[in-house]
Specification:
Elements: H1 5-33, H2 46-58, H3 66-79, H4 88-102, H5 105-113, H6 123-135, H7 138-141, H8 145-148, H9 151-158, H10 161-169, E1 177-178, E2 182-183, H11 184-190, H12 194-202, H13 219-225, H14 229-236, H15 254-261, H16 264-272, H17 280-289, H18 292-299, H19 315-321, H20 325-335, E3 342-343, E4 347-348, H21 349-356, H22 359-366, H23 384-391, H24 394-401, E5 411-412, E6 415-416, H25 417-423, H26 427-436, H27 443-453, H28 457-464, H29 467-472, H30 474-487, H31 490-497, H32 518-525, H33 528-535, H34 551-558, H35 561-568, E7 586-591, E8 600-605, H36 614-621, H37 624-631, H38 648-654, H39 658-667, H40 682-688, H41 693-700, H42 717-724, H43 727-734, H44 751-754, H45 762-768
Antiparallel strand pairs: 1-2, 3-4, 5-6, 7-8
Keywords: ANK repeat, Repeat
Pfam family, one: Ank_2
ANK repeats: 678-701
């Protein structure tokens, strides 16, 4: 069989239509439907109309279902001349508009576009329709074909009242709800055809009849739902109209819609009808939308019982939520409500208004004598002032502070309003609250410290600019300086340090020490810029001694030369102050008594304390850059010793820093003969640690050097050199003119006897010079 190009095109188009129907339309229909919350009218978004037209075109060959009925309606109405349409496309467009006007968007998507479900009340008519199709005699046997094929509803869409009137007189029921095209009245209300609604009522349409197969809605309720004001006012003139009909799902009434849309005249007509029940929902929506005239009409009714419960959005909650100060005043006066009661969310009206920043509502509530501005409701347990401070509502804060009954110190979890404003960095709000507080209140110290921790110079300035606060809370400002220095907040330190009331010498406990000043805190943390600012204070005690000694000693001990020069420029500085010290292990050198030829090895002794001068601290740690800086100052005592009697020269030899040894000897060579607690001089140490020959000769070249000094155990430097078999050291010592080789140890041993058997040339060197 040969397929013509035209048929091939038709088959391809049909396949594409089927693919779109099964794959694309479900997703597109949901997009067109939106979120399903639009209740302003039955006409769906424009995309839904396109979907419906596309589905109709794809169903041209369907013989069962709603689209087959629609297509046959087109054929019947065209043949019977019941409806005038220019062409087939024009009729389909009118039919789609009718369906869109007669049903909700969700119904159209679920039953027509997607076809997920089938409408049950339609099943019997569909069965009859299928039987007529099979017998092909349906047209002659149908008693009311115009009614069956929706002629009245399509005419309503076109706004053609003469045609509708003719159909009604011909036997078509005016109030019939068609399964596909809905009711003519609903279509007319949807499309805002007032004359159609008026004509239907004149022709006997019951205005109280249901116009939907699903949902309890009559003409009046549906007109209010779609916002048809003229239709509602017309229907309210009918004596038989029922005004109490409620939507079966939402229980909304015509009064609810009229009140929510601000139709004052319609509300007045509804309230004049004895069948109207003014429920709380109408009052709620009128308050929410801000229709004052309608609210006053409703509250004037004695049969209106508002619900002020805490589990729903009551009128008072809505009035506060939407900033209706007039509604708050009206409702409180009319119903004698306790203004301190908790409404929805466990908050009072004042707390909610303060939280939302509604200043006018706050002022209305504060005018009442029975309001409690300090009430803390369940839940968050915040006061109105705390809510306002949290959200930075300046107008509300100002209004609350004007109340003489306000407690600015009311706390929530131990925090009061000023601390909340400081934590949030709300500078203007904090200024307002601070102006109301007692300047001598100790709790201001906590707020000031919080401002420092939050790093806000502007907030700290609020406290510092007040001379009364500075005079009443000097401790707080010194603590603030300490905290800012500890955190390295340079701008903060600069702000605090410029006031004379600040004491930079106050001490506080830190993880570094039990008594640290702001300068020590900055140095411990390495905040150079902050430390320099503290150094500039005229009342700073540069010689303050803490657990770590002076600040110069701390810098020397840390090897931090960046600040040492700044500290040394201070004319009041005592360069040689010792640290208080603490007991710790000190290195000592001892010989094993069981090994007469054993070398002296290092050991530890707990007899001593770290009570060094800055120079000794730097030398002991091996920070010789710091040593050089200190040696540049003429006030430095080069020969200073600590409790172990060791000098900086002793430690320079220990760390094998020949250049520093030379600098120290140039400054003061008296230390070359100074003995430590074990009797060791730098020369003993250099020999025992096998230091270089150049360092040994440097020590021996000093004018006052004594190479024969003995240790507590009786050892000279030459004895140690023989013991250690250090030939170069022995040779250098023997070359010194003041050497005494006849010195014996305490046990009587000579140099040769000290020397271990075998090995080196030390013993032969001594013998060759015939010195023993």
């Amino acid at each position: 069989m040969v397929v013509s190009p035209a048929n091939r095109a038709n088959i391809s188009a049909r396949y594409f239509d089927d693919l779109v129907s099964r794959v694309a339309l479900p997703a597109l229909s949901r997009y067109a439907l939106g979120d399903g919350t639009d209740r302003t009218g039955a006409i769906s978004p424009p995309g839904l109309r396109w979907l419906l037209m596309t589905k109709i075109r794809m169903s041209q060959t369907d013989r069962v279902g709603p689209f087959a009925l629609l297509l046959d309606s087109r054929l019947f109405l065209k043949q019977s001349n019941a409806i005038c349409a220019e062409d087939e496309e024009a009729f389909l467009d009118v039919a789609c508009r009718t369906i869109l006007a007669a049903h909700d968007a969700r119904w159209i998507v679920e039953f027509l576009v997607e076809g997920q479900r089938f409408f049950t009340p339609w099943s019997q008519q569909l069965d009859a329709y299928k039987k007529r199709l099979e017998a092909e005699e349906w047209a002659d046997k149908s008693p009311e074909p115009q009614e069956f094929y929706g002629a009245l509803q399509i005419a309503s869409t076109l706004g053609d009242w003469p045609t509708m009137e003719s159909l009604i007189k011909g036997g078509v029921r005016a109030d019939r709800v068609h399964p596909l095209f809905g009711s003519a009245a609903r279509v007319a209300i949807s499309l805002d055809h007032l004359h159609i609604v008026q004509g239907l009522v004149r022709c006997g349409h019951d205005p109280n009849a249901q116009i939907c197969l699903i949902g309890n809605r009559n003409l009046l309720l549906y007109a209010g739902e779609l916002g048809r004001r003229d239709m509602m006012e017309f229907l309210l003139t009918l004596p038989e109209i029922q005004t109490s009909t409620k939507h079966e799902a939402t229980e909304e009434t015509a009064l609810f819609w009229a009140a929510g849309r601000g139709w004052t005249e319609a509300v007045r007509l509804l309230l004049s009808n004895p069948g109207t029940e003014p429920g709380p929902a109408a009052l709620d929506v009128a308050v929410k939308e801000g229709h004052e005239d309608i609210v006053r009409l409703l509250v004037a009714r004695d049969d209106l019982k508002p619900n002020f419960g805490v589990r729903r959005r009551c009128s008072l909650w809505l009035a506060v939520q939407h900033d209706r100060d007039w509604a708050v005043k009206l409702l409180l006066d009319r119903y004698a409500v306790n203004p301190n009661m908790e409404i929805r969310g466990g908050e009072t009206m004042l707390a909610l208004a303060a939280k939302l920043g509604h200043e006018s509502v706050v002022r209305v509530l504060l005018q009442r004598d029975d309001i409690n501005p300090n009430h803390q409701a369940q839940g968050e347990r915040k006061t109105a002032l705390q809510y306002a401070a949290t959200e930075n509502h300046l107008g509300v804060v100002e209004a609350l502070l004007e109340s003489p009954r306000l407690d600015v110190k009311a706390t929530h979890d131990g925090v009061f309003a000023l601390e909340i404003a400081v934590y949030k960095r709300h500078v203007k709000c904090a200024r307002l609250i601070l102006g109301r507080m007692n300047k001598a209140d100790k709790d201001l110290e906590g707020a000031l410290m919080l401002a420092v921790r939050r790093g806000s110079v502007s907030l700290v300035r609020l406290f510092h600019e007040d001379a009364q606060i500075r005079s009443c809370l000097p401790y707080a400002f010194s603590l603030a300086l300490f905290q800012a220095a500890l955190e390295g907040a340079t701008d903060m330190v600069g702000e605090i340090i410029k006031y004379d009331e600040i004491d930079p010498n106050r001490t506080y406990a830190t993880c570094f020490s039990r008594k640290d000043t702001a300068l020590f805190a900055a140095v411990h943390r390495g905040h150079v810029d902050a430390a320099r600012l503290v150094l500039s204070h005229p009342r700073l005690d540069i010689n303050h001694t803490g657990f770590n000694g002076t600040v110069l000693g701390l810098l020397a001990d840390r090897g931090d030369q960046r600040l040492m020069k700044d500290v040394l420029r201070n004319a009041n500085l005592d360069v040689n102050i010792r640290a208080p010290g603490y007991q710790d292990n000190i290195i000592v050198y001892r010989q094993d008594p069981d090994e007469p030829h054993g070398k002296f090895t290092d050991d530890f002794d707990m007899r001593f304390t770290w009570d060094d001068t800055p120079l000794l601290r730097a030398a002991r740690k091996g920070f010789f850059i710091s040593v050089r800086i200190l040696l540049e100052d003429p006030r430095t005592d080069v020969c200073a010793t600590s409790s172990d009697q060791r000098t900086a020269l002793w430690w320079a030899v220990y760390w094998n820093r020949e250049s520093i040894v030379r600098r120290l000897l140039e400054a003061d060579n008296r230390a070359v003969n100074m003995r430590d607690v074990e009797g060791w001089t730098p020369l003993h140490l250099a020999v025992n640690l096998s230091r270089s020959e150049s360092m040994l000769r440097l020590l021996l070249e000093q004018q006052h050097v004594d190479p024969n000094i003995t240790t507590e155990a009786g050892w000279t430097a030459l004895h140690l050199a023989m013991l250690c078999c250090t030939t170069k050291a022995v040779e250098a010592l023997l070359d010194h003119p003041g050497i005494d080789t006849s010195v014996r140890l305490g046990d009587g041993r000579t140099l040769s006897e000290v020397h271990a058997p075998g090995g080196c040339d030390c013993k032969s060197l001594v013998q060759s010079r015939n010195l023993e």
